[in-house]
Write a structure and sequence with these properties.
heterodimer; A: 254 residues; alpha/beta; 7 helices; B: 252 residues; 6-stranded parallel sheet; 38% helix
Chain lengths: 254, 252
């Protein structure tokens, strides 16, 4: 079993939101982490500062994971810094909040290249280093919308459905090498802001709402995602692979 | 009475070819896209769709034929090609024809897909990703277009006798496929024709938005139930045939 202090984690999209919650927990537990961002460097610097102020060890790297060269470079820079990579958490994703007829094929291709292509590229780039780790792990952040439709973003749901199957395939493909691959089907989470605002208003007829439910939706906190990632990264979860774990505070049951 | 028109978007699988034949013989006018039309080119598809008469009733969109591709042998170019054939084709077909059905106030979209929307192939990550994505698209169609009279169905079909060989070194699924079916034979490519006809009928309306696992029970297969005596006979035969030993689940 590897000591946390020896292990290195790379969490994509960790400058803010869910990813920031994950790196905060991993660093608290002693792992050295890459805080990765693409567009919002200011928030990522703030996350890095928080981690360092709390005694954690982290660096900040900027890259566009939809670009094959930048994705590969993100991994090599991590290994150049610390000499190893033990945990890859794929989290960077976009959400455009569009109905089917508000997408065009090029926008969907762009989304695919980030939400799936980014995961695909990062895993391929990380594999040679994960193979050298005594306790390698891959965690893909998916969504409850890998199973349940969104009604607000068909493209996003398609990419999350794809992650569910990508995770299962890789669990088989990398299982023989002892690399567990799991996904987290994340529900509504309290974050700073989403990557896009809906170009429409969401309307539910009043009779479809239970008045007793007002304000009772349990949002997930980013650090709670980090706790689950930490469990999946640990020895206790070594038999768990190909799983898609729903983390939604019971939202899907209401 | 004019026959209802059904578009089958891709005839590369035998299931799709058989569906075309069956529907034409059973009261529908089924047809496919021109050979040079690429489904993932949205504008081209849209232009072609505008040339169709407005009496289109349904679209059946089959998944592309199964392909295996180990993760580390995949290239960027191959990744994009898989996206074209899998998710982008399904998206463009959906956008164009669900949009048309919305105007007409009625229509049926059937995604004739695969068990690999749920069950991994083994060395088939790009194929399965596409299946998983289209499964979610089918559910979203129900949300976006259901109130406009559009019904959508997602079929997870099993392995048929004309499918490409999906055997790999990391999955049992494609080994002894015939033994996995209760009838001990792989279904013929026309096995789903009756289901397609049902889904096209108004009687299937309550199933709209559903995933239909139409795999004859093959994914529920866990192994043969045999007695110890039968096991010994199998072993004896294997020795006679000079075959390798097999794992018998549950054997003490």
């Amino acid at each position: 079993m590897a000591k946390n202090e020896e292990r290195v984690a790379l969490v994509t999209g960790s400058g803010k939101g869910v990813g920031a919650g994950i790196v905060r927990v991993l660093c608290r537990e002693g792992l050295r982490c890459v805080v990765h961002c693409n567009s919002n460097r200011t928030l990522a610097e703030k996350t890095l500062e928080e981690i360092r102020n709390a005694g954690g060890e982290a660096i900040l790297l900027q890259a566009d994971v939809s670009d094959p060269v930048q994705a590969a470079s993100l991994v090599t820079q991590t290994v150049e810094q610390w000499g190893r990579l033990d945990l890859l958490v794929n989290n960077a994703a976009m959400q455009y909040n569009r109905f089917i007829d508000q997408y065009d094929v090029e926008l969907l291709r762009k989304l695919w290249n980030i939400n799936i292509g980014g995961y695909w590229r990062m895993i391929r780039a990380a594999l040679p280093y994960l193979r050298r780790s005594p306790q390698p792990r891959i965690v893909n952040i998916a969504s409850v919308h890998a199973k349940r439709p969104t009604c607000f973003d068909a493209g996003y749901a398609m990419t999350k459905g794809a992650i569910r199957m990508f995770t299962r395939e890789l669990a088989l493909e990398l299982g023989k090498e002892g690399i567990p691959v799991n996904a987290i089907d994340l529900g509504g989470t309290r974050i700073e802001f989403k990557t896009g605002n809906p170009p429409f208003l969401s309307y539910r007829p009043a009779e479809t709402r239970n008045p007793h439910m007002n304000g009772k939706v349990r949002l997930v906190m980013p650090e709670e995602v980090g706790e689950l990632v930490m469990y999946l990264a640990g020895e206790a979860a070594s038999a768990m692979t190909g799983s898609c774990i729903r983390l939604d505070g019971g939202q899907m049951l209401t | 009475m004019q026959k209802k028109r059904v578009l089958i978007t891709d005839l590369r699988t035998r299931e799709a070819q058989e569906a075309l034949r069956y529907l034409n013989a059973n009261g529908y006018a089924a047809f496919t896209v021109p050979e040079n039309l690429r489904l993932w080119r949205e504008k081209e598809l849209e232009s072609w769709a505008e040339t169709l008469d407005s009496d289109l009733y349904a679209v059946i969109h089959p998944a592309p034929p199964l392909f295996l591709s180990p993760l580390e042998e995949q290239t960027e170019e191959f990744f994009q090609k898989a996206a074209d054939e899998g998710i982008l084709s399904a998206f463009c077909v959906t956008k164009v024809f669900a949009g048309l059905f919305r105007q007409l106030g009625e229509g049926v979209l059937i995604y004739l897909n695969s068990i690999h929307a749920e069950k991994p192939v083994g060395r088939g990550s790009l194929f399965s990703m596409g299946c998983g994505a289209v499964q979610m698209l089918a559910r979203e169609v129900n949300q976006d277009y259901g109130t406009h009279g559009v019904r959508s169905f997602f079929i997870q079909r099993g392995i048929s006798e004309t499918d490409p060989d999906g055997r790999s070194d990391i999955s049992n699924l494609y080994y002894g496929v015939n033994m996995r079916y209760p009838e001990r034979k792989i279904p013929a490519p026309d096995a789903l024709n009756g289901l397609l006809a049902f889904l096209l009928s108004p009687a299937a309306a309550p199933l709209s938005g559903s995933d239909l696992r139409a795999d004859g029970g093959m994914t529920m297969y866990y192994g043969e139930r045999i007695t110890k005596e039968q096991l010994e006979e199998i072993r004896r035969q294997m020795l006679l045939d000079n075959r390798k030993e097999v794992t018998i689940l549950g054997e003490e």
